[in-house]
Amino acid sequence: MSSFFRFIAKHTAYLYFLLYCCISILLMQLQRKETLDAIHERGLAINASLADRLSEVSAVFSLKRDNELLFLQNARLFSRLLYQEDAIHDARALNTIIGNKPVWVDQFRVARVVDRRFSETDNMLIINIGRQQGVIRNMTVLTPDGLVGRVIDVSANYAKVLPVINRNFMVSVVSDSTRTTGLLSWQNGDERIAHMGHVPLSSRLLVGEQLITSDYSTFATRGIPVGQIIRISKDKLFYKIDVRLAVDFSTLSHVLVSPATPPREKVELMTSPDIPEKGR
């Protein structure tokens, strides 16, 4: 290694001369037009290639930005469409309610079902009118098809409705042909099927009869459709009666709240103690 460095040091002048010759030859080549043109063309090609690559990268980022903007725009349009469809559906349901106003309803308020508790035994409804709209407990809730339930609790702007399809609900009904009375209740299961009880075997009753609320009801006025008898079978002392309800609760969206209730005097007398005072 030391001999190599000694050689370099001894012949430095020659090495510098060789380097200068190489640089001179290179400069002479660069002065030629063909060489300059070739370098210029190569530079243009490299510049065009770099520009294409940068354009592709820029296009990718631009496309991503455009896709995000399109996604947001589509989301806004979709939300508007959903809102408009909901508004159209509500308007149609409202027109159906008002257009088919039952003759047995003189005064009523239209309400929308805004919440519902689903259960096999304890279904419950919430409607969007309450105390400030004149709703009180035990008002009748219905549709043009028939009875929905009764109001059991009220807040300022909402009301809780105990529907027919609740095991705690019961209403007095009467058949339209034979005028047979009984108590209608729901015993879990199918939302469209209820049961009519307390009908003795001595009663006359027919399959296909329509049931309406009777004078015996403590909250509903008489004459509100409830359902139709579809099956009758005998038990020990009473009939077992299946009733197809008039209202389809699976599609229920709007209801009527009727302020008409049975006379308070009648209800108070019926609920007063049955034990008479002792005579002298």
Question: What does this protein structure show overall?
Answer:
This protein has 280 residues and is α+β, with helices and mostly antiparallel strands. Among the domains are: 2-31; 109-270, Thrombin, subunit H. It is built from four helices and twelve strands; from the N terminus they run αααββββββββββββα. The chain has helices at residues 2-10, 12-30, 33-99, 264-271, and strands at residues 109-117, 124-127, 140-142, 147-154, 159-163, 170-175, 181-185, 193-197, 210-213, 225-234, 239-245, 254-258. It is rod-shaped.
Helix and strand arrangement:
Layout: H1 2-10, H2 12-30, H3 33-99, E1 109-117, E2 124-127, E3 140-142, E4 147-154, E5 159-163, E6 170-175, E7 181-185, E8 193-197, E9 210-213, E10 225-234, E11 239-245, E12 254-258, H4 264-271
Antiparallel strand pairs: 1-2, 1-12, 2-5, 3-4, 3-12, 4-5, 6-7, 6-9, 7-8, 8-11, 9-10, 10-11
Entry keywords:
Thrombin, subunit H; six-stranded antiparallel beta barrel; rod-shaped; single chain; 280 residues; alpha+beta
N- and C-termini, Cα separation: 146 Å
Rounded mean pLDDT score: 79
Number of strands: 12
Note the main sheet: 6 strands, antiparallel, barrel
**How much is the radius of gyration in Å?**
44 Å
- The CATH architecture name of the domain at 109-270 reads Beta Barrel
Order of helices and strands: HHHEEEEEEEEEEEEH
The CATH superfamily title of the domain at 109-270? Rod shape-determining protein MreC, domain 1
CATH class group of the domain at 109-270:
Mainly Beta
Low-confidence stretches: none
Shape: rod-shaped
Give the helix level as a range of percent: 25-40%
Strand order of the largest sheet: 1-2-5-4-3-12
Find the structural class using helix and strand composition.
alpha+beta
Strand content: 25-35%
In the CATH hierarchy, the third-tier topology of the domain at 109-270 is known as: Thrombin, subunit H
